[in-house]
Design a protein that fits this description.
The chain is 72% helix and 12% strand. By secondary structure, the chain is of the alpha+beta class. It folds into 2 domains: 3-60 and 173-201, no CATH class; 72-168. Helix 5 packs antiparallel against helix 6 (120-168). The chain is rod-shaped and about 115 Å long. The protein starts with a strand and ends with a helix.
Length: 203
């Protein structure tokens, strides 16, 4: 089981404490200068690579996975209901066209002194119009679902980066050793290590 030499709350706290890290390492163990140089190069000159690894830990945090899953579900719901937004315009155009058609037919039939209700074409058009009007509430309900999903999606996306910044503050970094290796831990996992060759050789 590795021994924790020093531990910090997060990436920023770790990297602003370079001097105290080495003071703690030297206080806790007799490390050779060559191994000191190797480990210092690994974690400080290799800071950009460590940052990428740290960011992966942030993205893998349960809170971030849950947030991404929520965004994906909302995007799916938005896509599912979007066709109704497109369909409503078409439906309204059809209803308007049927109303216009009925008015024209009614006018023509009245000129001929024919009761519109007895005309098959008029009755069929009226029947089609009734079906279209009956479909309106269901389509409008789907559009409400779309609007709700869109609003929730926009909020979830707006919350993502602030959540990420919060999570970034919660993943600890530590220096640990098993006596043979010096290791940099991010969270609960060793992500970089240096073999203490010179230190072991001097014993």
């Amino acid at each position: 089981m590795p021994k924790v030499i020093c531990k910090y709350k997060n990436y920023d706290e770790f990297y602003k404490n370079r001097t105290s890290i080495w003071a703690e390492i030297r206080r806790r163990m007799d490390i050779h200068a060559a191994d000191t140089a190797s480990f210092d190069k690994l974690i400080f000159q290799g800071k950009a690579a460590i940052r990428l690894t740290y960011d992966n830990h942030v993205e893998d945090a349960p809170e971030m996975k849950k947030a991404r899953s929520n965004i994906a579900a909302l995007e799916k719901e938005k896509s599912r209901t979007y066709r109704f937004v497109q369909g409503l315009k078409s439906l309204e155009d059809e209803i308007s066209a049927k109303h216009k058609m009925l008015r024209v037919l009614e006018s023509q039939l009245q000129q001929k002194e024919v009761d519109p209700k007895t005309d098959p074409n008029y009755r069929d058009t009226a029947k089609e119009l009734k079906k279209l009007i009956k479909a309106q509430p269901a389509v409008k309900k789907k559009i409400q679902e779309y609007d709700k999903a869109l609003k929730a999606l926009e909020q979830a996306e707006a919350n993502y980066d602030p959540l990420k910044k919060q999570v970034e503050k919660t993943i600890p970094m530590s220096v640990q050793t098993d006596g043979k290796n010096m290791m940099l831990y991010i969270g609960g996992r060793a992500e970089a290590s240096v073999r203490l060759r010179a230190t072991l050789a001097q014993k």
